[in-house]
Amino acid sequence: xxxTSIGQGLLWAPLVIGVFLTFRIxxxxxxxTEGSFPLGAAxxxxxMISGQSAVVASLLGFLAGCLAGWVTGMLDTKLHMPSxxxxxxxxxxxxxxxxxxxxxSNVPLLNxxxxxxxxxxTWSIDGQTIxxxxxxxxxxxxxxxxxxxxxxxLSLMATGDNPAMSAANGIYTDRMVIIGYMVSNGCxxxxxxxxxxxxxxxxIGMGIGTIVIGLASVLVGEIxxxxxxxxxxxxxxxxxxxxxxxxxxxxxxxxxxxxDLKILSAGILVVVICLPILRTKYKTHQQLKRYLKQxxxxxxxxxxxxxLNRQASPEGLLSRDSK
Amino acid sequence: MLKxxxxxxxxxxxxxxxxNNGAGKSTLLNTIAGTLPADAGVLTLAGHDVTKKSVAYRxxxxxxxxxxxxxxxxxxxxxxxxxxxAQQHTGSMGLGxxxxxxxxxxxxxxxxxxxxxxxERLTTQVKYLSGGxxxxxxxxMATLSQPDLLLLDEHTAALDxxxxxxxxxxxxxxxxxNQLTTMMITHKMSDALTYGNRLVMxxxxxxxxxxxxxxxxxxxxxxxxxxxxx
Lengths: 323, 230
Fold this sequence. Notes:
By secondary structure, chain A is mainly alpha-helical. Chain A has helices at about 1-25, 35-50, 55-75, 85-100, 125-145, 150-160, 165-170, 175-200, 210-225, 230-255, 260-295, 300-305, 305-310; strands at about 105-110, 200-205. Chain A has 2 domains: about 1-255, ABC transporter involved in vitamin B12 uptake, BtuC, CATH 1.10.3470; about 260-323, no CATH class. Chain A has a two-stranded antiparallel ribbon. In chain A, α1 crosses α10 and α2 (about 35-50) crosses α8. Chain A is globular and about 75 Å long. By secondary structure, chain B is α/β, with parallel strands linked by helices. Chain B has a domain at about 15-75 and about 130-230: Rossmann fold (3-Layer(aba) Sandwich). In chain B, the strands form 2 sheets. A 6-stranded mixed sheet of chain B has the order 4-5-6-1-7-8, with helices on both faces. In chain B, α6 (about 160-180) links the parallel β5 and β6 (about 180-185). The radius of gyration of chain B is 18 Å and the shape is globular. Chains A and B meet through α6, α7 and α8 of A and β4 and α3 of B.
């Protein structure tokens, strides 16, 4: 069960990394995810059916995702739409695009050679999945780690952190936001390409709920692996993707029907958002109690002041201004 | 709102701009920086017409220190990363490594001049610094790119009196050693009289007073006050 989760988690990892890029680096919740994920799948499967190799087809899927990101980026920066709305518009438009690319709502792969077929057939399916997932995720991580060591990467981080300061220092922030959207959605589409090959088909509905999966995995990953360095944070995203898959597998093992997985995903997201907030609240309360004990105040007073620490809201996980 | 403002800042000028709340001094600064577009007229920076250009484009010749210490620095990034960002106002798309060991030595020396112990905190995230430290860092960053014009937007207004004094002294020192052309917005009349070689008073979106050199030195606070009242 754990082995399967690792394999599946590695296939989903590029999506989580993509969501991390917009959500954490650029500080934008990007709903394009729901459209670019099936777009990657659709483009890859269609390309493979028309005779392209799995590698080329997956790259085409990645590029299609970049294009989708570019559209959202243009809507956001050049037409000054709120980023949530820009994402919703692209996502909705992509539904039609995906239908046109696939021709029908579900396209199965028949005898096409998928990425795992490049590996020895004697290996188990889980083994093959893990190797393919690890190689692709490894390449994505290596490229991003390099990117964030360059001046461009620094400009991207600065833009997400403080756009006014970035512009004042000569950074064309619109351009940075568009690049961020493109790289992010490219990764997400790549993940779609991998999942389609793993499942053996592309489906028009496979994007539903992917933003929730992505966000939940980002937060789970951050609970387990915190750090400032980019390689630590990216590794955290991979860990988050795997743990998230594991949680879903456990739930299915407990007898949850497949139809209920979406509400479970949403539930997991609610829990992982609330957990750190509750933990901070609890810690603040404990500290206050200890402090009051030190200065000799009685318990009654400690209770009356507890309303104070309710006002001191902890650093919000989803808030944009937690600087 | 600005009306028919015509202002020429000469190289080497240190202009202090004062005015009531809503008089238009911030509008003036934001129009120069590009945050606000000019409806009419021409804006020239170091011989280039930048009337229709973006904030980032104008940054080639401009540096700016904001009123809010949080605005001028990127809190999630380290002290060294902030300095790197400020060093060049062009080439933000570069694909070369931004971190160089030789630069860190230079940064350390620069930060030492602030006397705030920041040279030991190159890798600290800026959000953990105090307001005064952040503003001093902003000031240092603003000079790194050798701008043709340095804009100071009430940059001591958010600080306590002691820190405010310290940052003002630092400003004076930095402007003098780097020979920077500076425009400083302030609402403190004493600062406007003490610092700079030129004083501009803005009222109702117009330049009401523009004195320089000896004429400014002879200006008394009472005279200035009476002008305000009019």
